[in-house]
Amino acid sequence: MYSKTVNIENQSGIHARPAKELVSCAQKYSSEITICESGKEDRTINAKSIVSLLTLSLTQGKNVVITAEGSDEVEAVESLVKLIESGFEE
Fold this sequence. Notes:
Histidine-containing Protein, Chain: A, 4-stranded antiparallel sheet, 4 strands, 33% helix
């Protein structure tokens, strides 16, 4: 299992377009990938589900924890962290 915490920096947070990008990225990996807001681990969701991701209402300034478990877990987490840190090019 591999986890990393990242801050949502883009002004709009994770709305529909960034959520689609995040889910598309997550679906490239065979590992099970979850995401939750830091401190709210009871609301951990499948990062490959856009509907679940949108229910988290992740806004600018929130920290999220991305966790993956599987053969490509490190690559998966690092790729998603990089995407979030890029601000989804907004």
